[in-house]
Amino acid sequence: MKIINKIHNGLAQYRLNKHHPDGVKADSKPIIERLFKCSVEGDYAQVDFLIDLLLTHVYHGLSKAHKTLLRDVARAICKCEIDYEETRSVQERLVSETRVLDPKVLTLPAWLGLQYFFIRLGLFQSSVSVREKAYARAEADAASGSKGRVEKYLFALIDRGDFSKATAVLQSLSAKVTDERYTVLSNYLAISSGGKPHMEPKSRIEEAYAKYIQGKSIAIVGPSPSGARNGDEIDDHDIVIRLGYKGSIVNEEDFGSRTDLTYYAIANVIYYLKDQNCEFLEDLDFVSFKSSNFKEHASDELLAKSRIFRRNRYYFCGSPTMAQHALHDLLHFEPASIKMFNMNFYLAQKKYYDGYIPTKKQRAVYLNNVSNKYYNLWAGQDTDTAGFAHHDMLSSINFFRNTMHREGVVVDDVCAKILSLTSREYFKGLEARYVQPFMTVGNKWQD
Q: Which of 15, 30, 262, 310 could bridge 245 with an S-S bond, Cβ 3.0-4.6 Å?
């Protein structure tokens, strides 16, 4: 075991150093995930080593007081030696220490990695001040004129909803990127700000899909119970889309009774197409997949109505959930209207309807088939800091907020209330739901 740990530590240090002698360009997420794996296993010597590795190689520009505070609270959380109430004063101090820092003390990847680390630790509210520094660093980096850095600044501006500046930055990129890339960036700004994206179908199936969507009223139905009894309103739309459709509807009063098409993530494809009876998909009009890996498992009939959707790859930080992917894709095809139902951004007491998430036995099937380094290490305690960090919930909320500028794009009342919250109010709600009940002394991590 000691030899294995030395190998892991050497790999961790190599990842940090391979691009730069100070490791400032490295992605710290694999190190953070290794840290939490060691925490679950009770290997606290390795936890200490990896925390120190992060602070000395990636976050070395932080003040001494900031690093000491972060080191102490990270160790206490990973070793289950701190209660949630104790972290509240720590978070206030972390916010204060962060606010006075010059954004240039860390690189942009380091700021974003630090935000990821804070969320992974359950310190959601503290991560907001780190994100502000990341925005400022992106702006400073863009002054270099580097194509990649200017693009990142463009995504930061769109994320914040500053569309006038974003338009100017996009124009400055016209001479630096290919026409194809410029069209992609223009489309993302248009989708986010209420404009009309330029769309050319990539295949015959997409031509058919464009005709199917254009001019229609669309309901996108998420998996979160709201108790709003919107079933009849959902069914009144021309097209009803269910995310990750499993072949049955649990509560028609809340979720409606119709399903015309669905959107699938990669893990869903492997589990449902490879290991389950999915004949119900052949009754749908279209099926949209995240990648082409569905093809080897799909029937000829299913292939005839399947397509790869246009993924949202342009977040300032994090990876979109399926709701954001679906909305981004659909807005390329000029629907008359879109209304989103049963999406509460995880603030409800029940995250999903029964059966949406596979059982532990079912989950083991597709986790064996999917390399998922972000697997939730708090899964046994009903928390999801890994998922929240990976998807970056502020990016997800900001994308929804931005698309609300578009005429005809709306959400149900429950989601509208959530979108009206400030970032800190939203994160405070997540902490109350997913961190506060479980962050207690002696409550060991569970895998």
A: 262
Mean pLDDT of 179-206: 91
The 8 Å CB, 24+ separation contacts for 5-10 are 5/43, 5/46, 8/34, 8/46, 9/46, 9/49, 9/50, 9/53
Contact 344, 241 (CB under 8 A): no
Question: Do 131 and 117 form a contact (C-beta atoms < 8 A)?
Answer: no
Q: What is the rounded distance in angstroms from the CA atom of residue 213 to the CA atom of residue 290?
A: 18
Would you say residue 382 has pLDDT above 80? no
Per-residue HEC secondary structure of the chain comes to CHHHHHHHHHHHHHHHHCCCCCCCCCCCHHHHHHHHHHHHCCCHHHHHHHHHHHHHHCCCCCCHHHHHHHHHHHHHHHCCCCCHHHHHHHHHHHHHHHHCCCHHHCCHHHHHHHHHHHHHCCCHHHHHHHHHHHHHHHHHHHCCCCHHHHHHHHHHHHHHCCHHHHHHHHHHCCCCCCHHHHHHHHHHHHHHHCCCCCCCCCCHHHHHHHHHHCCCEEEEECCCCCCCCCHHHHHCCCEEEEECCCCCCCCHHHHCCCCCEEEECHHHHHHHHHHCCCHHHHHCCEEEECCHHHCCCCCHHHHCCEEECCCCCCCCCCCCCHHHHHHHHHCCCCCCEEEEECCCCCCCCCCCCCCCCCCHHHHHHHHCCCCCCCCCCCHHHCCCHHHHHHHCHHHHHHHHHHHCCCCCEEECHHHHHHHCCCHHHHHHHHHHHHHCCCCCCCCCCCC
Structural domains in the chain, CATH included, are 2-118 (no CATH), 204-363+392-420 (3.90.1480.10)
Q: Point out which residues pair with 220 in neighbouring strands.
A: 241, 340
Side chain identity at residue 288, one-letter code: S
pLDDT in tens, 272-328: 666 556 777 878 999 998 888 777 777 788 888 889 999 999 999 999 999 999 999
Share of the chain above pLDDT 90, in %: 57
Instruction: Tell me how crowded residue 273 is: count the other CB atoms within 10 A of its CB.
Output: 21
Return the residue matching tokens 């036995």.
Answer: 361
Specify the residue for token string 């359950």: 122
**Among 317, 399, 314, 404, which residue's Cα sits nearest to residue 135?**
317
Residue-wise pLDDT for 249-274, tens only, equals: 888 999 999 999 999 876 566 556 66
Report pTM.
0.87
